[in-house]
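RETRY 2/3 - previous attempt timed out on the joint model. Re-submitting the same 602-residue input unchanged.
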Amino acid sequence: MLNNYGIDIWSDDNFVIEKGLAKVNFKSKPSLISIVKEVREQDFKGPLLLRFPHITKKQITTLYDTFNTSIDEYNYNGTFNAVFPLKVNQLPTFIHPLIQNGKEYNYGLEAGSKAELVIAMTYNNLNSPITVNGFKDKEMIHLAFIARSKGHNITLIIEGINELETIIGIQEETHLPCPNIGLRVRLHSGGSGIWAKSGGINSKFGLTSTEILEAYEMIKENEMIEYLTMIHFHIGSAMNSIKPLKKALRESGHIYAELKNLGAENLNAINIGGGLAVEYSAYERNRFYSLREFASDVIFTLRDIAKQKGVDEPNIFTESGRFISAASTVLVTPVLELFSSEYDLEHLKLKESNPPLIEELNLLFKDMVKKTSYEYMHDAIDHMESLLTLFDLGYIDLQDRSNAEILTHQIIKKAISQLEVEDYEELKRLDENIQEKYLLNFSMFQSLPDYWGIDQEFPIMPLTHLNKKPTRSASLWDITCDSDGELPFDSKKALYLHDIDLNKEEYFLGFFNVGAYQDTLGMKHNLFSHPTEVNVVFKDEEVVLEKVIESQTIIDILEDIDYDTSDIKNRLKENLDINTYKILEKYLNENNYLKTIWSYND
Ligand SMILES: *Cc1c(COP(=O)(O)O)cnc(C)c1O
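RETRY 2/3 succeeded.
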């Protein structure tokens, strides 16, 4: 069986393998490698982020269509509304197409900081909702009043009574129209998954039941009841099961209904936060529900409670971000080197007379046939260990050691190639010993911060060679000088890649589903900044590359961390002739990633 890298688990039909190539499963179905080549022809080397706005659009459409179908099915009287939480991806290359594609649904934005709120009040379509979460100071609340004055449909979701006091204060002070008010409730039911701490009684966020009652009284006393429109909760990101959501719906549904019965006459919405999961694993499914089930459960539960308590069915808001953006972005990393390539046979320099163990290795290499490959490989690894001991004791020299290393690697390679077809299982047992290390032109800290920080898996697949059996158990290294910049081989989630001669052909790896959280969580370790990015847009059958933004130049990176760049240039000029300085200046204006590693002329 060919290794398909779990594409049927994680790709949701967004990408397919055809004729050995990873292709975008849309319109003219371009291969990813053809897109990468086109970008690199414009002299953009290093890692690439390919964004596919049509995938974001598909997710938005799927979300609305699924909920609206359930609404029809259950004859539900509320509406479905959604906002994109900006913290999941604030970059303009992602946000502009999202706003455009969401317009027909009135898809809105959620902001959790002042800077995010400024993005929302600048670019959100006026008819689409804005929700504001997180801790707020006076300025942030004032910004929301200003957004309301501009005509935005904005809801301030309060996290504490003090925020409500500030809202009342600002209204008295400015007489600006008041935004709608939402109450974030602190549920006793928690979430599931690693991020569950956003829900539950010890959660960082939300009002206790006592505070909810207190807030209601305060709103009423200040004659602001018309602005109280929303109940909100968020039980955490990447829910793998639907059970905690059902509990949270019951709890918040009853709070909604009770407040309505108390006299909150304009209260009309329950905002269920985010948390819809996507599949990141290439080995097993981790999400145990479908979007249809999710939608039906929300609508069924809320209808049930409304009926029980005799109130109108609430409008539904969601703030799912990961579900909308993850699949839209693919990180492409060029492979710079396979570490064992330095053990090519051409470097072998056997002497007239060699130490016996080396003669032995040479014979193993020459005589190895399929039947003996497993055994000979074992012998070779044993011999190699003995030879290293002999070297440490001073009995063999550096040339002998080099010969031993080359021969052992060649024996392993030969064994792998002889075993590959039928004895895959046998091979697997040896994987730990015979890994190949692939050096990738990217920074894990910058581009996969969730892998570094919380061991988040991402699907990995080469863009080419997919009709050939991958034979090397792989560990991946980034180009930072940090040993944490490594994705080690894991026999339980084994990654196999192809044995490539990089002098003859290029090899690129794709990391998929990286469109949520990675872009701005990433950090500039070793001063590797954001990769070059491009939006891949389909105009009829044609593929158009829009908004190519090159990775920052070295001089810009230094400016960003507050170096005085003219001082840098003046100092660098000292003691250099003008031509040498000109070359240096050209380098300052290139990005920080490697161009190539093996060729001087390239
Ligand atoms: C982070 C967050 C979201 C988005 O969560 P996803 O798991 O990305 O869907 C939604 N609402 C609030 C309040 C959040 O803090």
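The chain has a mean pLDDT of 91. Closing ticket.
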